[in-house]
Amino acid sequence: MTRIAIFGVENAAPELGARVLLMGCDAVVADATVEARIGEELDRARAALPALYDVGLPPEGKLIRAESPDAAVASADAVVMAHAPDHFSDPHEGCVTLIVGQPDRGGAFLALELCSPAWLLPGALIRDASTDRSAAEAVLDRIGMDVGSAPDTSRSVMAACGGDVAAAVAALRALKARRAGPGVAIAAHEARLSPTAPSDLSVPPVTVARQVPPDWVDYNGHMNEARYLTAFSDGADRLLAWAGMDAACVAEGHSVFTVETHIRHIGEVHIGDRIEVTTRVIAAEGKRLHLWHELSARGTLAATGEQLLLHVDLATRRTALPRADVGAWLSRAAGAQAGLPWPDGAGRHVGAPKG
After folding, report:
1. Is there a contact between 78 and 139 (Cβ–Cβ < 8 Å)?
2. Least packed by Cβ within 10 Å: which of 100, 117, 282, 354?
3. What total of structural domains would you count in the chain?
4. According to the model, what pLDDT value does residue 92 have?
């Protein structure tokens, strides 16, 4: 785990400290004021940054108080210092220096201009750098910052949203979907965070783990019913990708079409809630794939989704057997989970009105 020492109470340093923690790295401080400022930014960041992503962020890092500045630096892999005038002709509150290695031994550095809030916006403009800056860039890559995305682009997003963070999250999500502006960096980082296939298929794996973003909420103040289908569809896509049905497989003409879905809404899900979807392979026989999803929020089952899908040949748009490796993986999952109790609610339908 990467450990980064944070110095300075100006906006950019504590904001970056909050990003460090939410990206699963430890932050080390040597000052109570810096510790408090990072805590304030962390509360804001927790409500917004995870909503940018359609995958779960790493487990949150620890905020550690060191006995002295020297101890903080000695225990860290990198150092962030706000306002480093040696590297800027016009330092301002959006400027920091990132140093990898020990500063007194010529550690590699990047002098950066960031956009506030740095825990949300990925753009970082390099204003100065050491000859070998690869190690410093790797640290930024680890926490989802992009030295190729100018802060001005992110500032324009914030300005267009009137400084409203929830609106900015929705705008950045739209840019991510279109691979435009700062959305390019967010999409690339999300791909790197995507979970790998589980080694144990005897229990239904978690296929979705994420926070409910602002644009998933309806006029009743809870998650819109269409977004439950989005979550279950994402779960099916993740499972199929693990099975081998990736972009290359689809390009070859192998895909699936959904022919039936039944969703039960059991509990409310609200904006900012962290949701998890588990996906069980009930049957994977020939052209037919039968899935069962369970969506939980705050540790409680909130919805179930049952899907029937058919493998298709995209060249003919007709049903076909899956590619051999995909079919074998799905059959193995179905066999591994065959001994589990039949899901409560599976096979149900909406009853016809009486009378």
Report:
1. yes
2. 354
3. 2
4. 47
